[in-house]
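are you around this afternoon, could really use another pair of eyes. what follows is a protein written twice so to speak, once as letters and once as structure tokens for the fold. i want to understand how the tokens follow from the sequence so walk me through it. anything you notice is useful, everything is just below.
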Amino acid sequence: MTEIHIIGGGLAGSEAAWQAAEAGAQVVLHEMRPVRSTDAHQTESLAELVCSNSFRSDDHEHNAVGLLHEEMRRCNSLVMRAADTHALPAGGALAVDRHGFSDLVTATLANHPRVRIEREEIAGLPPVEWRNVIIATGPLTSPALASAIAELTGEDSLAFFDAIAPIVHHDSIDHDVVWAQSRYDKPGPAGTGADYLNCPMTEKQYNDFVDALLAAPLHEFKEWEKVPYFDGCLPIEVMAERGRETLRHGPMKPVGLTNPRDPLVKPYAIVQLRQDNALGTLWNMVGFQTKMRYGVQTEIFRMIPGLENAQFARLGGLHRNTFLNSPKVLGPDLKLKADPRLRFAGQVTGVEGYVESAALGLVAGRLAAAEVLGRDIGMPAPTTALGALIGHITGGHLEGESYSGARSFQPMNVNFGLFPSVELKKPEGVKRWNTTEKTLAKKKAITSRALADIAAWA
């Protein structure tokens, strides 16, 4: 039987090894620690949690990450088993004892009869005789392997830092305030001339916004997390520091746009939103990468007209990270188009978060085992959290250029904006269905459908 080689013993690699071995395949898990350490890890344990010990919300009825937890449990996830075994009190969240969690994952894989753990660095591409490989090397992929992947797939296939702008749920935008228009009505290669949503600002609103940016507390990064500033991806607060008018001549410039509700009044500044996924449920704040702390981001961005009640699928950031331009280089089965013997899983594919990384490992491990064993298991349905997440990184994201001219694909957590919509009917006897009740009903409908649809694949 062909062995499955898995490179990387983080959450994704560990979950992939478990899933493949449980399916009946022989697995070799390659982890470079402790032979070669990283700036982030402190132990040689598999699935070490290097940052928070929280897996976020465990509400599988009304929260997308909670739904992902439950789908993974129903798919016999080792990561979720270890998390549940070592859970700590955390309200509605799932937090874990980080050492107990990692120790359980390590011991389980070390004692599995079909798993062999090799402590070594894979420098460069895997040997050609390895015919079934999963690369799950995470955000700190070794330079030699990253360089080899970039050479194989093209220089623009791999990024080494995130310049993340916030993403807003479309149905939380005030469409009585914003309007659809491209700058100078230019349609672009796949557009209509009305491809952006525009949020207008008066001079006072703009100055209040700049004042808030200048006063905002920023994330403090460890040395290994820091990234250099490039003129094309400056955080908005850094642009504001360079002069009060800088943003008006950058991502917030008001030229080439006319508010149809008040065509004679020229907005002083404009914030543009660009469609981020094929479903049209997520919209990106163009040029709004930031190092502000998460809590204050929501408060400040809701100062923007039209976004007063905005719900964010993702907040902004600027971090060191290694990730693929997955919509371009990966197939729907997570295989590298340039070398189909290689699959990718975890953060290197462009997902954010412990659970999302492990989820990609779960799917990759099952697919690799099915291939080795001559089975056809297909992919999780796009209506499931697993399927929605994979669909986004391999095809659901609308590829294009960011404000800086760089490719726009950036890492993403699972969220309800990635799921196909559901049709809701107002309950009988209810005359007025308020927004909160409707939102909860929509989330429950999405999660109920997902758990029904994951059953066969699980």
Observations:
- Confidence is low (pLDDT under 50) at residues 401-406.
